[in-house]
Amino acid sequence: MKRFDFASWRALGALAALAALLIPGLALAEEGWETNSAGMAGAVAFWALAGLSVVSAAGVAFSRNILYSSFSLLGTFLGVAGLYVFLSADFLAVAQVLIYVGGVLVLILFAVMLTSRIGDVRISNEAVGVFPATLATVVTTGLMLFIAWMTPWRTGAQPLSHQPTAAALGELFLTRYLLPFEIASVVLLATLVGAVVVARKEIKPE
Amino acid sequence: MQIGLIHYLAVAAILFSLGMFCVITRKNAIGILMGVELILNGANVNFVAFNHYLGGVLSGQIFAAFVIVLAAAEAAVGLAIILGIYQNMRTIDASEADTLRD
To answer: What pTM value is reported for the model?
Structure first.
């Protein structure tokens, strides 16, 4: 097997295209922030970030190689984080990068490296039932876009201004949403214990 | 061109659909988990977009934060289970791990 064949070049090209989408997107996101995402720069940055998210998500969904899929997920997470910046959710954008890219994606890559043998990595992500899945996906997408388009959303009010949200979110967490917040912490504790119990080596009592 | 709520809803719908396609078609269990992450991201974009354009308090962002927390928990437990299956069966093919059915 050749070291660096056509598929590798194609993957490199896709990565380069993603980077080319990301860099102007991030550069323009700052300007879009200033103009409240109304100006030309804001529109261009939105399309770049939306394109990055959607193209990477398509890579996740259609790639034949589980490793390329997981790296493609990185583009989706970064693109969605950029969209959060446009939607005046600065804290969530940072949390997205920290938790998804720094936590979930690393976990997924870890699992991929631990489980798929190098030899069959090319067919590691085969798909079954593509035709009914495509049908269901197209119908669902069409339905959701139709509903989003036809519903008269009550958007008359002024959109949120681009203020820092961390303080307001913290106050809401500790007053109005205190019970869900505490339940979330219990869930995280249970996750911690559960993951350790499930993944540890079984010691057979003799 | 003015970017409005509908654009974000479209992006979220496409993310959701691609995630659903991933969940339906993948045989690799990790691929299925990646599809679930895509679906959760699409839902999150919806929450934050509605919060931005419909105004009010930051409830949408709070919900998105809870979704992120639960997604992290789901990924940790799911991957631990997948690693456990791999240790026992030497495969993570979701259609081969069917000992409970026999």
So the answer is: 0.83
